[in-house]
Amino acid sequence: MSIYSSIMSLVSPQTETYSNSDSSASSSSSSSEDETKCDSIHNPLGDRRDTLDLLDNIDLRFQVAPPTPPKIDLGDGKFEFIRDKHSRYLLINAFEAITETETWDFVSLERESFMFDNSPEIYKIMNAMEKSSYPPGHSGCSFGWTMRQMQFLANHGIQNYKLFVDN
Fold first, then answer.
1. Longest CA pairwise span in the chain (Å)
2. For position 91, what pLDDT does the model report?
3. Which of 71, 73, 88, 149 is a plausible cystine mate for 82, CB 3.0–4.6 Å?
4. CA-CA distances (angstroms) from residue 82 to 132, 147, 161?
5. What pLDDT was estimated at residue 132?
6. What's the CA angle centered on 59, arms 61 and 39, to 5 degrees?
């Protein structure tokens, strides 16, 4: 059933008659000519609205699903192209934790700081990092750096991340 059909099933068209109260407007015409008929829709809430006004106020943004964004290739999470062993372990650890906690969408959002963020998602990621096969031993700075790397990966994919790291 379309949104229009749904609305029309809730409201019923009615005709109302309004009489012209100005007695000097027509002295020889009959009283039926002095009345003006107008069609309106009766809203279930009790007020009267013109059909177009009622339909103009409907928010159709949520009636159609937004286009699905292209899936970003995050890679396999091994970061074999990272030469520094400690940095590679930090990235593997974060990748595993974010994947385990299913917080890639959260990580991809722009934010002022990861280091000082007190959101529940950050604590979920940090707890998962501590349980990982590569426990990080992060300082605030290394945590912030690692999460910014993951944010870039989440937004741009592994191929662009490799180019970013090589430059």
1. 101
2. 95
3. 88
4. 19, 16, 11
5. 78
6. 145
* HSE-up (13 A, CA, CB side) for residue 47: 4
Residue 11, pLDDT above cutoff 60: no
Structure tokens at 51: 């059909």
Separation CA 94–CA 124 (nearest Å): 11
State which amino acid sits at residue 7: I
Given a cut of 90, whether residue 38 has pLDDT beyond it is no
- pLDDT for 32: 47
More confident residue, 135 or 53: 135
Q: How far is CA 142 from CA 10, 28, 30, 95, 121, in A?
A: 59, 92, 89, 14, 18
The answer to whether 154 and 164 have CB atoms below 8 angstroms apart is no
Reported as a single tens digit per residue, the pLDDT across 78-94 is: 999 999 999 999 999 99
Strand blocks (E) in the chain:
12-19, 35-42, 48-49
Q: Rounded to whole angstroms, what are the CA distances from 19 to 30, 38, 42, 101, 109? A: 12, 11, 19, 68, 61
125 closest CA partner among 141, 145, 139, 104 = 104
Find out whether 111 and 56 touch, Cβ atoms under 8 Å: no
